[in-house]
Design goal:
By secondary structure, the protein is an alpha/beta fold. 39% of the residues lie in helices and 19% in strands. The chain is built from 13 helices and 12 strands. Its main location: cytoplasm.
């Protein structure tokens, strides 16, 4: 039997979908939602019917009979901390995401829409590697303030997908490897995978700056700014107007590289500083596994940049061989995760956090 899986990844102004037959992509679509359309809804949950109908209409246009589906898998939203891998979507999960989400986020719709499609077909709906995956060890949670513990929010979906892919390339099981994965996108996060678990991370607010995010900032200076600046202004400085935007006025790595090619020395300094900080984050996480690292993996959209990956590789290749896996590949990661469950290679968790 050949399994057909529909993968759904809701974003702020789009819903990306793809249909896979086993590991073969049959088609995919980025369904755009205009700002005017999004503005009609009071919150994220209220958008679900509009997005559901857009998906079903597209499938109809493609003359695809949904009765051929074996499963539907959606992007995992902002739930209370969960384990890595697949979760079967149930009423408790849908209720949490629809009515009591930790944060309003488009990814919360992944489970809700998947469940609606699957329910009418009597097939399973899953989420896979939610944004809320948390496998931090106890020692990694401690900070210098007893009432502040570290959380685990990262690009878990793509990170684990490329880690599994590279482990296979190394002819090893993912559960037998120690891997460090740096995801380079609008935000940058880095994770260390110890024998199949993502045991520590450098999140986008405690590590390297990125195209739009400020990253780690000296606490004393940040504290001074917080008491002299409006809260919303500070939020924008940290997320949206930080990083390359703050230093160079653009969030486009391509634009920055053009500036460098045209002889802009300041652009080169800032861009290389970003690579320098990413390399520091990778080095920091190498200590978690006592330096025993099978591979360092660089992924995400900016991993297409030979300039950026070259700078990082030069600084970290002494730790382990460096693998470049550009792009985010989130739909593929969702579909392949669900496929492993359907084939019995992985077991789906049951969500019972309420």
């Amino acid at each position: 039997m050949m399994y057909k899986i529909l993968a759904i990844n809701p974003g702020s102004t789009s819903t990306k979908i793809a249909l896979y037959e086993e590991t073969k992509e049959l088609f995919k679509k980025n369904i755009e939602h205009s700002n005017e359309e999004i503005a009609k809804y009071k919150n994220i949950t209220a958008q679900y019917e509009m997005r559901y109908e857009a998906i079903m209409n597209f499938l109809k246009e493609m003359n695809f009979d949904v009765k051929e589906l074996s499963a539907v898998v959606g992007r995992g939203g902002l739930l209370p901390p969960v384990k890595s891998g697949a979760y079967r979507v149930n009423d408790s999960m849908v209720d949490r995401l629809a009515n009591r989400p930790l944060v309003e986020h488009a990814s919360n719709l992944g489970a809700i829409i998947s469940n609606e499609i699957a329910k009418s077909l009597n097939i399973p709906a899953f989420i896979y590697d939610s944004v809320a995956v948390d496998e931090l060890e106890d020692i990694a949670r401690i900070t210098g303030m007893a009432d502040v513990k570290r959380d685990s929010f990262s690009h878990a979906l793509n990170m684990r997908a490329v880690a599994i892919k590279v482990a296979k390339k190394l002819d090893k099981a993912y559960d037998d490897c120690n891997l460090i994965v740096a995801h380079l996108g609008g935000g940058i996060s880095i994770s260390v995978h110890n024998k199949g678990k993502m045991v520590d991370i450098v999140s986008d607010d405690e590590g390297p700056f990125s195209p739009e995010r400020a990253g780690r900032i000296a606490c004393k200076r940040l504290l001074q700014m917080c008491y002299s600046t409006d809260k919303n202004v500070m939020k924008k400085k940290m997320r949206g107007e930080g990083g390359l935007v703050s230093n160079l006025g653009t969030n486009s790595a391509l634009e920055v590289e053009k500036k460098i090619e045209n002889g802009d020395e300041n652009a080169k300094l800032v861009y290389e500083a970003m690579a320098y900080q990413i390399a520091k984050g990778i080095g920091e996480l190498a200590t978690v596994v006592d330096g025993e690292v099978d591979a360092v993996i660089i992924t995400g959209g900016i991993a297409y940049s030979k300039m950026m990956t070259g700078w990082i590789k030069k600084r970290v290749q002494f730790i382990a061989p460096v693998e470049i896996v550009p792009g985010e590949n989130e739909l593929e990661a969702l579909a392949f995760g669900a496929l492993r469950v359907l084939k019995g290679e992985e077991k789906a968790h049951e969500y019972d956090l309420g």
